[in-house]
Specification:
Length: 258
């Protein structure tokens, strides 16, 4: 089913997982390994990956091929996001990032797309490989691509809501609007949501809460792995068109008449 290419990076898995809301780093590691993901996103303002003198998430993944994807959760301006990523790269050498600038911190955690666009333009010039969290607007997705982002990440629903994809048409519209990978991000509640996203043509799915807060995170992580694979395979296979009436499964030509 081919690799997922994001800028200069290539991944065999099309599932990206998060690191928040787990009880401890060991559970984070176990669920990530069960998911088959090769990329785990980390809110660098909340989870330690830069201070070697404190418990550090990086230590739990040193013996794996899983890459850390720093994100700018908790940033509310372009300037905050830019400064955050520059510091992270200086401390860790990591240059693939998930850019998110939040506009509504109280209810929806929706992105401030104008601040996101402003940050993307600067970070692209700085040489980062950028994955940008955005709304499900194909116009903004195209603007972000033009600004240099290497993947656009339209939300399915508010972060952590578990509502699943609320506007399937817009996911498809975003996919048609850009040539960079489209990673459905935020709002996934269970494995079937990931399959739907992939069947709509998304190149990948990012999920955190649906795994971390499941009753059995390890099993849910594995379910997400297979759901993404199944959805991608179904998309590549080409679904049948929807019809208002029944169509016989068996051919009627040559049917014996009584």
């Amino acid at each position: 089913m081919h690799t997922l290419e994001i800028g200069k990076y290539k991944f065999n898995s099309r599932l990206i997982v998060g690191s928040g809301k787990y009880p401890d780093f060991q559970t984070t590691r176990d669920a990530t390994l069960a998911s088959g993901s090769e990329l785990i996103t980390v809110a660098v303002r909340r989870v330690n990956i830069t201070n070697p003198n404190e418990e550090n998430l990086l230590d739990y993944f040193k013996d794996t091929d899983i890459k850390i994807l720093p994100n700018s959760a908790g940033c509310f301006t372009a300037e905050e996001a830019i400064s955050t990523f520059r510091l992270v790269r200086e401390a860790t050498g990591i240059d693939i990032i998930k850019l998110e600038v939040i506009g509504d911190a109280k209810k929806t955690l929706y992105p401030d797309v104008m601040e996101t666009l402003k940050a993307a333009e600067v970070l692209y010039k700085d040489g980062f490989t950028i994955m940008a969290y955005t709304n499900d607007d194909p116009i903004m997705a195209k603007k972000l691509e033009d600004a240099g982002v290497h993947a656009v990440m339209p939300l399915a629903a508010p972060i952590g809501s578990g509502l699943g994809i609320q506007n399937r048409y817009n996911v498809a519209f975003v996919r048609d609007a850009v040539s960079v990978p489209v990673i459905v991000d935020a709002g996934v509640g269970t494995a079937s949501d990931s399959s739907i996203a992939m069947e709509l043509g998304a190149d990948g799915v990012l999920t955190n809460t649906a795994i971390a807060q499941a009753q059995n995170p390890i099993q849910m992580a594995e379910a997400m792995k297979y759901a993404v694979q199944a959805g991608r395979l179904a998309y590549l296979s080409g679904r049948i068109p929807k019809k208002p009436y029944a169509t016989a499964s068996s051919p009627v030509d040559g049917l014996i008449q009584f």
